[in-house]
Structure formats: structure tokens, C-alpha cells
Amino acid sequence: MTTVAFIGLGAMGSRMAMNLHEAGHKLRVFNRDRAKTKPFAAKGIAVCDSPADAARGADAVVTMVADDAATEAVTLGADGTLAGAAQGTLFIDSTTATPSMARKLASACRERGCEFLDAPVSGSLAQAEGRELVFMVGGDEAAFARGEPVMKAMGRMAKRAGPSGAGATIKLVNNMLSGTLTAAIAEAAAVAEAAGVDRAPAQEILNEGATGSRLLKGKLLKIFKRDFAPQFQLELMDKDLRYFLSLAQELDRPAPIASLVRSQYQAARRASFGKLDACAVFLQATGEKPAG
Fold first, then answer.
1. Residue 171 catalytic?
2. What CATH architecture is 3-162?
3. What is the DSSP letter of 35?
4. Is the pLDDT of residue 245 over 80?
5. What is the pLDDT of residue 25?
């Protein structure tokens, strides 16, 4: 049994942490909003007062927070996990962060005699619930071998993509593709509906076409049903596209498609659709208002 500190019990993190518990790992958890720790406390899981407190005595620390600023704060802050961790602790950051932040955290961990993996995930709530996440990992091979059992308790696959920053890079590429396809689905749905095409056969036909995929099947149905309950929040997709564009600029690579798509999500976020599912970019395209 491994003692794992888990930081960040949002929609994804809470499911990942509970799967660690159910797999037999001993958990110590922290979340800024204490209300989200209640299901864990009810199971006798240690709820800690700070990230540093959670990391004390842990073999591994898993973080699943919103962005660069949050992961830096909970790791490197005065009461961050690194302040409480012993030498040899393995850090696994599943936040969708920039590669530069991953490398910064890896360097800080090495200076303290700890190991670090940037290990963001592919999948949304259903995959987190069902232990079907895919971990995209950056870090050295020895750290990956040590962390793989922890990740496998939360997902179906963990794949090392290269040194520190590689996992974060692949995740941004993945989300650029996901965000672009979601925006394209929204645009296609808007045109199909305006043309008077029946939704059910349109859904079935498109799912059987060349672009048929899990994303098309799920997002097109949500749009047709006007179900914008978040599986992955639009504001997070906007952030990930912004990070992707920053990376492309660092690498001096053109990204005209991502630039256009990001402008659509940015406009949708500024129109107060940020807390809805990413497919609510459809609302920005059509001018509709969400129900309720």
C-alpha cells in the first residue's frame, strides 16, 4: 500500500482520488473548498489543512488543479507540497499546465531530492469515474516506473512521452485537437439545424462517417439536446488553447487554425459561457441563450 497525498478535489480530481482509495492506497487529501472533502472524511480519509500537511508522510503526491498558477502555488508555495515532503517523494502533476511550468516544478523537486512527473490525462468525467483515463507522462524512466502503479489505479493506460515537459506538451496538442473538433461540431450542428435536418438521423449518419468518434458522438448529442452541463468546462478549453498558442509561439511554429478556434472559445467565455461544457461554443455561434 502506498500513501498518496491528493491535492485538488474538483470534478476530475475527486473521482481520481476516490479510485486511489478504492484501489487500496492510503490517502491524505487537501482542497481549498473544504465542502468537497466531506465524502472523503466520511470514509475515514485524512483531510489536511494545507498541501504541505497532506504531503507529510506521503510516498507520492498527486495534484489536479486548474492551471499554471494553481499548480505552482500548491507545489512551491510557503505551505505547498514540496515544503512538507520528505526526500524521495514522487510528485505526479496531472494538471493541464505548460511545458515550461512542468520543467520548473521538475527542477524544484530535484533540488529537494524528489522526483517529478508531468502526467496530465485524456478523458472527462465518465473516464475518471470508470478508471479509463490515459496518462500522458513526461519525466525520467525510473520515476515513471515508480509512478505507473499509482496512475494505473486511476486510469487504463500511462505512457511516457519523453523527459520533463513532454507530457504537458502532448496534452496541449491533444486539447488543441479536441477543442478544434468540438468547435467544428458546433458549427456543423448549427448549419444542419438551420437547414431543417432531423437531429436523430443526422446524429446516426455522422457517427458512421469518416469523422465518427467518441467526441463527435458525445458532443453532437449534447448540442442537439441543449445539454451544456460541464464534462469539460469551456473556460478550461480556452485556457488550454491559450497555452497551446504560447507553446507554438515559443517554438516559432504557425498555428492559424488554433488561433481562430481559440478566438471562438475566448468570445464564448467572455459571453459568460465559461462554466458550461466546451460544446457551449455552439451558443456563441448561434446567439442562443442556455436554458435556465
1. yes
2. 3-Layer(aba) Sandwich (3.40)
3. G
4. yes
5. 97
Q: Do residues 279 and 221 touch, judged by C-beta distance below 8 A?
A: no
Q: Which of 26, 104, 171, 219 is catalytic?
A: 171
Dihedral of CA 23/70/115/37: which sign?
A: negative
CA atoms within 13 A on the CB side of 49: 0
With H, G, I as helix, E, B as strand and everything else as coil, classify residue 6: strand
Other C-beta atoms closer than 10 Å to the C-beta of 192 total 18
Dump pLDDT digits (tens) for 189-224: 999 999 999 999 999 999 999 999 999 999 999 999
CA distance 52 to 237: 29
Instruction: State the CB neighbour count (10 A cutoff) for residue 108.
Output: 17
The confidence band for 291, taking pLDDT boundaries of 50, 70 and 90, is confident
169-286 has the same fold as 3-162: no
Helix (H), strand (E) at residue 97: none
Check whether 58 has a pLDDT greater than 90. yes
Residue 1, pLDDT score: 59
CATH architecture of 169-286: Orthogonal Bundle (1.10)
The residue ranges of every structural domain in the chain are: 3-162, 169-286
